[in-house]
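Exercise 7. Predict the joint structure of the components listed below.
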Amino acid sequence: MARTRTTKAIAQRIDLNYFKKATPFKRAKLWLVVLAPLLAALWIAWHFLSGDHRVYSSGRLSPAHAVLEKQCEACHVKMDGGFSAAARDSACLACHDGPGHHLEMTASGAPKLPCSECHTEHRARIALANVRAKYCATCHADLGRAGKGSQFANDIRSLSNRHPEFLALRPENGAPPRDPGTIKLNHALHMKAIRRGPNGPSVQLECGDCHRPSPAGDARWEYGDKRYAAAPVRYTAADSFEPTRSRGLPAKRPGSDRKLMVPVKFANACAGCHSLAFDKRFDEGVPHDRPEVVRAFLVRTFSGYIAAHPAEVREVADPGRSLAGRLAGSQGRTVSSAQWVSERVAVAEELLWHKTCAQCHEVSGSLLEDVKIARWDAAGGRGANGVPRQTSANLPAAELPSIAKARTRLEWLPHARFDHDAHTGFSCTGCHQNALKSAESSDVLIPGIAVCQTCHAPGPGYASAECSECHTYHDWSRRTEVKPVFTWPALRGGGS
Amino acid sequence: MLIDRSQRGWAMASLGILAAGLGIYLPYASISPAGPRGGSAVGLLFGAAGFAFMLYAAALGARKRVPTWRLGRAKAWMQGHLWLGLLALPMILFHGGFHFGGTLTRVLMWLLIITVLSGIYGALLQHLVPKRMTSDVPLETIYDEIGHVRALLAAEADRTVEACCGSFLNRGGRAAEGKDGTWQRAGGFTALRPIAASAAPLRTSAAVSAGASAAVAPAAEILLLSESESEPLRSFYSLEVRPFLERPEERGLRLSDEARAAGAFTALRTVLPSAAHGALDDLAEICGEARQLRRQERLHRWLHGWLLVHIPLSLALIVLGAVHAVMALRW
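Solution:
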C-alpha cells in the first residue's frame, strides 16, 4: 500500500514543546549573546583597572609626543572636582613655549587661540608643527573681518588660493619689478660659451660656478682666485649687500646654513676670468677693494718697481705707438722717480676706473671727466725747449672715483623662507627660467609663485602646500625658556 | 522581512536623514580647519544620532523577548531596526570623519561595520532563501523538530522494510521518543510508544508515516519475502538507507543525491519481486523527505546563521559604544 500523508498526521509528529528544547543553534546563539558583550566588558575593564588609558585614545600621538603615549596624564590634567580631563594649554606650555603671533596682532586684543586649535593631537603620526593652511585661513582669509587689518594681503586662503605674487615680483607704482643691485651682469651672456681671455680656452659656465647654497670653502670655486679670497678687504657687507628686509617671523630653529645662496663675490666667482691687471710690468692685479686701497697699492707697487729699476726713468717715446690718435714725439725724456710713479699710477687708474672697474661697477666722480690717457701731453704739443710738456705728473693727485654700493639682495622673500638645500635635486634654470635670457642687472630672476605652485599644491602627487612650509606663526624672537617637567628615566617608567 | 513597497516611507525618511547628514557634514568637513572630529559639536551631534539609532536597533531584541508589550507593532519595530540600523553606519562615519581613530574607536568601527554588513546580508537572504525553501522543501517542518521528524522517518522506514523482510534490525532505541518513551504531539494528546515492527507488523504506511501507534493504525497488509528474496533489500537498507536516515550530513552517501538515489532504487527494483515494490516506493519517498529535511537544515543555516554574528557583535557594540561615549567626554 502506498504511503499517504495527511495534514493531521504531519502535525501530529510535531512535539508541542519543541521551542523549549535547546537546539545547537539556539545554544550557540545564547552563548555568543552572553559571551560577546561580556568579553567586550572584560576587555575594557581590564584596561581600566590596569590604568592603561591608551585604549580610549582617539588615535596615535605624533612622533614628537610618542614617548608620552603611556602618560595620558601628562597632557590630560583633571581639574579638581571636575569630570573632564581634556588637554589644556597649561600642559602644552609646561614643556613648550608658544609665543604669540605678530606682536601687533596680540596687542590688538585678538583672542589667543588654544594650542590644540591648530596643533591637533591624536591624528596619527603626523608632524604636529605642520599646521594645515585651513587654520591660517580662518584669519587670513579675511583679515579685515577679523579686525586685524595690517600690511598683509587681506584675503589669502592657501598657496594655491588667492596667495599674492611674491613681493619682489609685484609692480611698484606701475613700474615693473627691479633688482636694486648695481653690479652689471649679463646673465644671458655668461650662460653662453665664453672665451676666457684673449687667447684663453672657451668655457661654459654653469649656475653652480657662481651660485651655491653651501658656505664658501666647502668646495673649490672653479672661477675664483684664492689670493683674492684670502686677502682682507676694507669694504664691508653694508657696501655689498642690501639690508635685510625680513618682515616674516623667525623660525623656531635657525635651520641649515644652506638655505640661502652664498653671496656671489668677486674673489670666488669673477676673479678667475676678470683680471684686475693694471700694467704689463706686473702679473698680479690690483686688490679688489676701495679706490683708496687700490691707489695706495699702485703707488707702492710702482715705487718699488722704479727703485729696483732706476734706468727706466729715461724714457723714449715709442714712435710706432699712437695714443689718443696722435703720434708721440720721437725724443726721449728723463723724469724723476716720483714723476714716473705719478704718471704710471695715473695711467693705471685711468685704465681701472674707466674700464676694468666700470665693467661691473657703477663708477662716478669728477676725475673721470678730465683724466687723460696719455702720459705725453697729446694736446699741448711741446714746450719751449722742444721737450714734450708733462701732463699727469704735474697734476694734483686725482680725485678718487666713487664706486656705487653693490646692493646685492640676498633675501628675496622677506615674509617667508625658502630652502635652496631642499631643492637641490632640481636644475637651477628649471625654476629661474629668466636667468637664461636676462641681459640687465635690473631683471628680477627669482621664480614667481606659479613656479612653486606647480609642485606645491593640495592633493596626492604634490609636495606640501601648507603655509608652514614657508611661514612661521609663533614669534620665536619672543620665546622664553620653560622649566623642565619630566625626569628621565622616570618618564618611561610611568613617573613624571 | 521583505523590503518592498510597504517600506517606502521608511526608505524615504532614511534617505532624508542621510541627505540632511550629508548636508551638514560636507560643509563642516570642508570648513573645519582640523577636519571633521568626533569631539567637535557637529561630530558629537552625529555620534549621538548614530548611537541612538544603534540603541533603537538593539531594542528590537528586547521587544521580541517581551512580545506582549504594547510598544508599537512588531513590523514597525523591524522596519525601524532595518533602516535606522543601516543609518547608524553613515552617522558614525560622519562622527569620526571617516577616521577609525584609536584602539577602542577602531574596534567600535569594525564592530559596527560587521554588524551592519551582516544585517544587510541577512536582509538579502530574507529575500532569497524563503523562496528557495518553498520550492526546494515542500515538506518543510519546524526546524527545531527536524531531528525528531528524521527519527520518525527512520522508524517508519524500519517498519516498512521489516514488513517485507521480517525483523532483522538491531536497534539500540528510538531517537524519536521522549525521555519517558512518550512525546506530546500537536493536537494535544500524548501518543503511546510505537510498537516495534517485529512485534506488530500490522500497520499501514500512512499510520507509520504519522508515527502513530498501532492503536490508531488501520488494518495492515502482510508482505513477507523469503530470506533469499529479501536479501538485496535488507542489504541495501542496512548499508545505505539506515545510515542516510541516521547521519544524513555524512559525505559521499548515495542517497543524499536525488538522481543517484533514484538510480539506486531503480536498480533495486529489478532484483526484487513485484510484491516488494510498494515498500520500495515508500522507502524512496522516506529518503526523499529526509533529503528535503537536510536541504531545509542547510537553508535554515543560511537564513539564520548570520544572526550568530549579527546579534552578539551588536551587543558588544552597544556595551563598548557606551564606554566610548563616557570616556570620550572625559578625555
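Discussion. Chain B touches chain A through 64 residues (CB under 8 Å).
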